Amino acid sequence: MRDRILNIKNEAIAQITEASNSEELEGIRIEYLGRKGKINELTGNINELSSEEKKQIGILINEVKTTLENEISSKEDQLHIKSAEWFDPTIPGIKQDLGHLHMITQAIQEIEDIFKQIGFVRRRYPEAEWDYFAYTALNFPSDHPARDEMETFFIDSPENKKYGKMLLTPHTSSGQVREMLRVNSKPPIRMLNIAKTYRRESDASHNPLFHQFEGLVVDEGINITHLKGTLEYFVQHFYGPNIKVRLRPHNFKFTEPSFEIDTTCTICEGKNCKVCKEGWLEQAGSGMVHPNVLKAGGIDPKKYSGFAFGWGVERALMMKSGVKIPDLRTLYSTDLRYLRQF
Ligand code: DAH
Predict the structure, then answer these.
(1) Kindly report the CA angle at 148 between 145 and 170, in degrees rounded to 5?
(2) Of 9, 99, 109, 246, which has fewest CB within 10 angstroms of its CB?
(3) Which domain holds residue 57?
(4) Nearest alpha-carbon partner for 307 in 298, 295, 294, 321
(5) How would DSSP label each residue in 172-198?
(6) Ligand 1 neighbour 309 (Cβ under 6 A)
(7) CB distance 76 to ligand 1 below 6 Å
(8) Domain of 125: which CATH number?
(9) 305 with 288: CB under 8 angstroms?
(10) 153 and 283 assigned to the same domain
(11) Is the CB of 179 under 6 A from ligand 1?
C-alpha cells in the first residue's frame, strides 16, 4: 500500500513538472486529487488495514495530498497562471499621451488642400536663395533699398557672377521666376509655394522666421477677375462663407497693378471691432505679374499674363482662430502647456 501511494505520488510529480499550461495542470489535479481521483481511490481500500496501519497510511495520504497541492500551485506560479488569472479586462486602460501636428503645419496642410481643389500644385523652392531670384528677377533695380527694407539676412559667402549674393529668402515670391523656368517658360502655371521666409526682425509681432504661401498663375488671357475669384474662393473656404475680399491699390515692384488684399473681419464679420478697421482686415499682397518678371522667366508678356499673391501663414492662422497671440514668438516656443491648446 505504502509503495503504491509513493508510486502514485512520483507519477503525479513527474506529470506536474512536465505540464506546459493551465489546462494540463487542471487535468492532473482532477486525475489525482479530484473526488474520484487516484488518491481518493486509495482511501477506499483503507478499511482492509489494521487500525495502526490505517493511522499511518492516513498520515501518508494527507502528506502526499499536501505535497501535490503545493507542487501544482508552485507550477502554476511558474506558468504565471496565477498572475494571468488576476488580469481584469474591465479595468480602464492607461491613456497614452498623444501628440499632434503643430498648428502652423495644420494651417499649411489646410491651405494646400483648399488650393489643390482648384488645380494649384504645391512647389518648394530654396530658402537659401540668390539675390537674383529674390529681388533682381522680380524687377527690383540693383541698387534698390528694398533689400534693406525687407530686413534681408545675407549669407557670408562668395557672390555668384550672374545671381549675386546669397541670402535667406525674405518672401516666397522668389519662387515665381524659378517656377517659370521650371516649366521651360511654357505656361500654363498654377503654382502654390508655401515656405519658410526670413527677415531681421524680432518683436512681439515679428519672428525672424515665419511662413508665407504664394500663388502664381500664368496663362493666356488671365486678368484681375481671376485673381479676385481665386482669393474669394480661398477666404470663403478658409475663414467661412460670409467673408468678402477687397483689393486696395498698392505698390509692389513685381506686379502692375498691385493690390493689398483686405477681407471683411473674420472675428466680427464686418461689423467693426477691436481687431479690424471698420470691419476690414489687411491680409496680404497681390497683383498682376509685371511684364519684366514674365520676361525674366522667359515668357512673352504680349502673349501671356498672370496674377500672383503672397500671404503670411501665421497671420492667416491668427485671423482664422480669432486667438490674439500677444507675442507671436510664443508660436515657436516648445512649451507644451501652450501647444496643447491647439
Ligand atoms: N512678397 C510680398 C511680401 O512678402 C507679398 C506679395 C505681394 C506677394 C504682391 C505677391 C504679390 O505675389 O503679387 O511682402
Answers:
(1) 115
(2) 99
(3) 2-83
(4) 294
(5) GGGHHHHHHHHTTT---EEEEEEEEEE
(6) yes
(7) no
(8) 3.30.930.10
(9) yes
(10) yes
(11) no
> Are 147 and 24 contained in the same domain?
no
Between the CA of 16 and the centroid of ligand 1 the distance, in Å, is 82
16 shares a domain with 111: no
- Read off the DSSP letter of residue 267: T
Which numbered atom of ligand 1 lies nearest the CA of 212? 4
Q: Does a structural domain hold residue 307?
A: yes
The residue whose C-alpha atom lies closest to atom 11 belonging to ligand 1 is: 286
The amino acid that residue 172 corresponds to is T
Cα separation, 88 vs 95, in Å, equals 17
Sign of the four-CA dihedral 169, 211, 122, 307: negative
Over residues 215-262, the pLDDT tens digits come to 999 999 999 999 999 999 999 999 999 999 999 999 999 999 999 999
Any ligand 1 atom below 6 A from CB of 214: yes
Find the 267 Cα to ligand 1 centroid distance in Å: 24
Same domain, residue pair 46 and 10? yes
Q: Are strands 189-198 and 209-219 parallel, antiparallel or unpaired?
A: antiparallel
The reply to whether 48 falls in a domain is yes
Residues 296 and 220 in one domain: yes
Hunting for cell 482662430 — which residue is that? 321
The model's pTM is 0.73
